[in-house]
Amino acid sequence: MTQPQLAHQTEYGRMYARSLSGVPEVPSITTVIAQQNTDLSGWVGHMAATAVIEDPRLTQAVGSRPQLKTVAKQASNAAERFRDDAAARGDRVHNYAEQVGLRALGRPHEMARMREVLAEHGEAAYADRFDEWWDLFDVRPLATELTVWNGTVGYAGTLDLVASIGGRTCIVDYKTKGTSRDGRVKPLDAKVVMQLVAGLKAEESLVDPVSGTWEPWQYGDAPVLLGVALGQTEVVAHQANPQVLPDHWRKFWALRQVWGYSQTADAAGPALRPLGPPPPTPREQPGPQGEGGAPATTAKVGA
Questions:
Q1: Which residues, other chains included, contact 286 with Cβ-Cβ below 8 Å and sequence gap of 6+?
Q2: Among 87, 101, 130, 136, which Cα is nearest to 235's?
Q3: Which own/partner contact pairs does 178-181 have at CB distance under 8 Å and 24+ positions apart?
Q4: Which residues of 43-73 are buried (b: 16+ CB within 10 A; e: fewer)?
Q5: Where is the stretch described as Disordered (predicted)?
Q6: Main-chain dihedrals φ then ψ at residue 113, nearest 5 degrees
Q7: Which of 29, 172, 178, 298 could lock 161 by a disulfide, CB 3.0 to 4.6 Å apart?
């Protein structure tokens, strides 16, 4: 499920409602994490330059300013195209992983259809490697695509998987990754730890989106948080270091305050307003001067 039922895209990022008939109330976990500034200018420039170099029209365009401008214009959004393609691939892989979990839970699923979709895009290897990892780790799902809510801090999100692995309860987040030059799946970003600990700190989980029924969060004491890199050549699971969880939770809390501040700041209007010069004020008139330019004094009676 790439778009959770209670999630809404808003001008403030993805937000969650309490029911299908409710209005968005709190930001999603990923929206909060996105408040952390990430400089991608170098990567964007690299993608644009690579697109120019690999453009088959480049040889013919050399010497022609209009043709070179056309090549450059189409290369300028190479990063956006790459991002959108990666997001669509991630959705397809996540959909397959969700269906595998539903099948294991004995619930209706479309696992075969999702595998076909991957195959249609030349991505069947993702499903093969995922199946191998699932069997090797003997994953026993407890819940899949579970929406959770924290009313104290004010956020919500949807967890990819809660499962028993090796007899221990695990909160799992999948990340679809590309393949490095040495054939290994690319490493995870450490930000996944914030995402996992935010899920761990939930207070409620969704029971029924139609009626907006929630229940107390059952897995707040899960001992293992796993970020799982899903690749075409391998799947690699990484456990969040328990010693760093408090720091990542504090960082997530701070980013939530940043998100909240941006909403109140926007509502209050612009932070700076133009200011003109003050109105002129009457100047004091000089009094009579004594000798040497000093103010004259009045003699006292009897002096």
A1: none
A2: 130
A3: 178/86, 178/231, 179/231, 179/232, 179/233
A4: ebeebbeebbeebeeeeebeeeeeeeeebee
A5: 267-303
A6: -65, -40
A7: 172
Which residues make Cβ contacts (< 8 Å) with residue 186, sequence separation at least 6? 177, 178, 179, 180, 229, 231
d(CA 41, CA 86): 18
Ramachandran region, residue 116 (left: φ > 0; alpha: ψ -120 to 50; beta: rest): alpha
The answer to whether 112 and 100 have CB atoms below 8 angstroms apart is: no
Q: In what order do the strands lie in the sheet with 224-230?
A: 213-216, 204-208, 140-150, 155-165, 168-176, 224-230, 235-239
Specify the pLDDT at position 303. 47
pLDDT at 1: 44
In the chain, % of residues over pLDDT 90: 68
- pTM of the predicted protein model: 0.78
49: its two tokens: 């330059």
Q: Is the pLDDT of residue 4 over 90?
A: no
The per-residue pLDDT of the chain, averaged, comes to: 87
Whether the pLDDT of residue 112 is over 60: the answer is: yes
